C-alpha cells in the first residue's frame, strides 16, 4: 500500500462526508427510495459505509498528524 499525504487524506475525508450527506439527503429521502424498503435499506447501508470510511480515514489522518 502506498503512503498517503495529508492533502490526500483530507480530500478523502471531505468527499466521504460530502457523499454521505448527499446519499442521506438526496437518495435515502427520495420518495421512490422511501417507498421501497429494500432500496431504502441499501441507501442507508451506503450512507453508513461512507460514514465508516470517514471514521477510518479520520483515525489515520489524526494519527499521522500527531506523529
**pLDDT averaged over residues:** 90
The level of helicity is over 70%
Please report which band the strand proportion falls in: under 5%, 5-15%, 15-25%, 25-35%, 35-45% or over 45%: under 5%
The first-to-last residue Cα distance is 19 Å
Structural class: mainly alpha
Please state the overall shape, judged from the principal axes of the Cα atoms.
Answer: elongated
Radius of gyration: 15 Å
Order of helices and strands: HHH
The largest β sheet comes out as: none
Number of strands: 0
Parts with pLDDT < 50 across at least 5 consecutive residues: none
Helix tally? 3
- The oligomerization state is single chain
Structure characterization notes:
With 67 residues, the chain is mostly helical. The chain has helices at residues 6-27, 31-34, 37-66.
Amino acid at each position: 500500500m502506498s503512503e498517503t499525504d495529508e492533502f490526500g487524506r483530507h480530500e478523502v475525508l471531505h468527499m466521504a462526508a460530502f457523499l454521505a450527506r448527499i446519499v442521506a439527503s438526496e437518495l435515502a429521502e427520495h420518495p421512490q427510495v422511501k417507498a421501497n424498503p429494500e432500496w431504502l435499506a441499501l441507501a442507508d447501508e451506503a450512507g453508513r459505509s461512507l460514514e465508516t470510511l470517514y471514521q477510518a480515514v479520520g483515525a489515520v489522518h489524526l494519527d499521522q498528524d500527531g506523529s
